[in-house]
UniProtKB/TrEMBL annotation:
It is a single-pass membrane protein. GO terms for molecular function: guanyl-nucleotide exchange factor activity. The keyword Electron transport does not apply. This is Uncharacterized protein. The keyword Endoplasmic reticulum applies. PROSITE patterns: WD_REPEATS_2 (PS50082). GO terms for cellular component: endoplasmic reticulum membrane. Keywords: Endoplasmic reticulum, ER-Golgi transport, Membrane, Protein transport, Repeat, Transmembrane, Transmembrane helix, Transport, WD repeat. It is found in: Endoplasmic reticulum membrane. Gene3D superfamilies: YVTN repeat-like/Quinoprotein amine dehydrogenase. GO terms for biological process: endoplasmic reticulum to Golgi vesicle-mediated transport; protein transport; regulation of COPII vesicle coating.
Length: 321
């Protein structure tokens, strides 16, 4: 059975939010909220947009949702089963991300423009430009560095503190090869590493030291172009969607794949982790799959559950003896 029932499925982007799923369809200017339970997923509510969403991000600190569209940017909040508008602006941004503290928004568009905005007032803090379409954006957890990747074969690193460019990263910097378009860029949770994904016929991931901004290692990850990357909230896993329908889960601590499977006949357009990283929703344009990470439950988590059960049993014993 299909996970969702919708008359015109042509998925643009998706985002897991707690025990819910946000979906945008290219065929309509709406954002849809589903419950991540049951078959099919129950539809809870919708929110009207001027055009379909091209990017979604969850700002956990303020519990807000960033929605980027070709006609503007929205900041939303989910209250129960309803989607509530907090603020919006006509500033365009096909890509967008919250800062770690959710006090800033970083956006990028198809013209190569990158902007950093105040998340409450949308006042511009910093802007700069690439020579090609922006493919991905990220801000380091301590708020010092900005990263933007582009089809111009660069990943620009800016210092928000000094308000200037620190360095242009290129795939060919670590090898005597041609430069490749950089499809994605994500900082590690500790902000000591930056991961970039570059693609032509093959796709590669490069890990960079953020102190020296030098490449540490590069791995070939797929024999076809990557179309989408995301990172789990704990920073341990990267979701990788490819042009030939694979949905991969890469463990960023070991650089080994925990999941490496073909799921769709068309490109994987979105991969989103649930808050505990144990479940992943992967989407192609016309299909959704709930794929499960192989991440095992930690010893501390198991011990905590055993301790809670023990305390409960002890309370029952003392209460009714």
């Amino acid at each position: 059975m299909a996970l969702i029932q919708h008359k015109n499925i042509h998925i643009s982007t998706a985002l897991c939010y707690k025990n819910k799923l946000l979906l945008s369809f290219q065929s309509e200017p709406q954002l849809h909220l589903y419950q991540l339970s049951g078959l099919p997923y129950p539809h809870l509510s919708s929110f009207e947009l001027k055009s379909h969403a091209t990017c979604l991000d969850w700002g956990v600190k303020k519990d807000q949702i960033l929605v980027c569209t070709e006609t503007g940017i929205y900041v939303l909040k989910i209250d129960g089963n309803q989607i509530i508008l907090i603020n919006k602006t006509n500033i365009q941004g096909q890509k967008g991300v919250f800062s770690y503290l959710n006090d800033r928004i970083m956006t990028g568009d198809t013209e190569g423009n990158v902007k950093v905005l105040n998340s409450e007032t949308f006042e511009e803090i910093l802007s700069y430009k690439h020579q090609g379409t922006i493919t991905d954006l990220d801000m380091s957890s301590e708020g010092e560095l900005l990263a933007s990747s582009s089809l111009d074969c660069t990943c620009q690193i800016y210092s928000i503190k000094n308000m200037k460019k620190v360095k242009n990263l290129e795939f060919a910097e670590h090898d005597d090869s041609v430069n490749l378009p950089i499809i994605g860029c994500k900082f590690s949770k500790s902000a000591d590493s930056l991961f970039t994904v570059s693609s032509d016929v093959y796709s590669y991931i490069t890990q960079w030291d953020t102190r020296e901004l030098k490449p540490l290692a590069t791995f070939r990850i797929h024999p076809a172009p990557v179309k989408f990357i995301s990172i789990s909230l704990d920073g341990f896993f990267m979701g990788i969607g490819t042009s030939d329908g694979w949905a991969k889960i890469l463990n960023l601590r070991t650089m080994d794949f925990e999941r490496n499977m073909k799921d769709f006949e068309s490109s994987t357009v979105a991969i989103s982790f649930t808050y505990d990283s144990r479940c992943v929703v992967a989407c192609s344009a016309d299909e959704i799959k709930n794929v499960f990470n192989t991440r095992s439950e930690g010893v501390f988590s198991k011990a905590s559950k055993i301790w809670v059960i023990f305390i409960f049993c002890l309370w029952i014993y003392l209460r009714f003896r």
